[in-house]
Amino acid sequence: METALGGKGYSAFGDTFAELASLTHRCDNGDVHARGHRAAPLLAHRGNDRILRGKAMFRRITIALLALLGWNLAAPWPAGAQWQALGLSGRQVNRLHLRSGHLYACTTDGLHRLSLAESDSFWTSIGFAGQSVLDLVDLSSSGLLAAKALTGAPGDTVSLFRSMDGGTSWEPFQNGFGAGTGISGHQARRLLAMAGTPGVLLATSGRIEKSVDDGLSWYPVVQAAVLNAIAQSPANPDIVWAGGETLIFAPYVLKSINAGETWSQFDLFAGGDNAVDAIACHQTDSNSVYLGMEGRVMKTEDGGESWSTVTSPDPSMYTFGMAIRPALPLEIYAAGASYTPDPRGVVLHQSLNGGLSWRAISYPAYAGYGVYDLLLRAGAVEEIYVATWNGVFRYGETPVDALAAQATDRASLQCRPNPFGRSVTFEFALPRTEAVLLQITDIRGRTVARLLETVLGAGPHSVAWDARAFGSGIYFLRFQSGTHVETTRVLHLR
After folding, report:
1. What are the structural domain ranges in the chain?
2. d(CA 242, CA 81)
3. Which of 395, 412, 415, 490 has its CA 20 to 30 A from that of 133?
4. Which CATH number applies to 409-492: 1.20.1250.20, 2.60.40.420, 1.10.10.10, 2.60.40.1930?
């Protein structure tokens, strides 16, 4: 089936029996191992590949038969939600990037661009046809910097390329990245353009390198093993997180508090072989970070001093994509890939309580081995762009707070963590400018702390309570905004 969004020759859905058979044939002949850096480690990391491919084929045939019989494999969608297939079927999409109203897709068959402003637009190929592109970022000089996968062929030593005309033409732009290392060290896997500091870039290989002149030169800042993810904290632009696995397959995370100049390492205990594959930073709390891993999500509430495992969205999933919405109330999205296709199709996991529980939101279209990246675009309708083994999909949802405001027009309040140790953060969003009162009382009703008593504007706010001077026990937060009054219980454990 063809659609305008899919473009000429791009099937938008990829759920017909003929395409399933074609994809199955390619997979079972081992082509999946050549489809980029994502699929190969996923399948070759553990187990017998022949058995895994057999299971994958069986599961794909099951999907096709259920589709022919008219079974609907999708879970119920939340109110105000809508899915859409955007095309690039038959291509593994490694990363997504937004720029000036266009969506860019880094795939195993080059770089592609789609205009989001026009409903009848087509994907346009803008370079690297037949080659795998791993990442893409904006340069402060209005250019683009792409990381291409090295093939191992003689003379293929340039991974970084620059375009100054929106992708019409590209020039090699390695400029010393990976200098002093072997060929594998020339491979840039993840790119990060530092928000708030024009011209500053970070890139990962077997180490992290930094550029302060828009990629004209690079210097190493920390040696590492395998690095799969890097992210900047929106709450504190000087804080950067990176993560991956050691050479003995143990997960770890790196943290910089000075824009990538120096780093601290935190080793994670995950009960055996694991890796950090995705990082999502809280929008207003620089101490709160979530890590997407193999079969689990881990988080810290104290800037990395301690880490805990929250309920996994899917124990069999490699969590390659995570995103946190940039406004309260807190919503976390996670998605990933596994050894066999999910019979539900494209699956997105959503948590409304800080990762303690998840709900699966699925779309019955063939996604191959699953999801490799998520990109959240905030607005009146929250859009999550989903990069899969078989094209790009878009999930749109009216934010929970907007739906609540339509129904009740009240402020929203969250307390986290709860129970808590040293401190607890109270987060709330106001529908309009109002007088706000926040005070803490003990179990006897005595006011022990007055945190806030002022007029605040509409939008998200947060206040922290440092309770180290108070004893363990139950406390109550009284929250008043305008005529709305709410009392929340919190448990302090010293």
Report:
1. 409-492
2. 32
3. 395
4. 2.60.40.1930
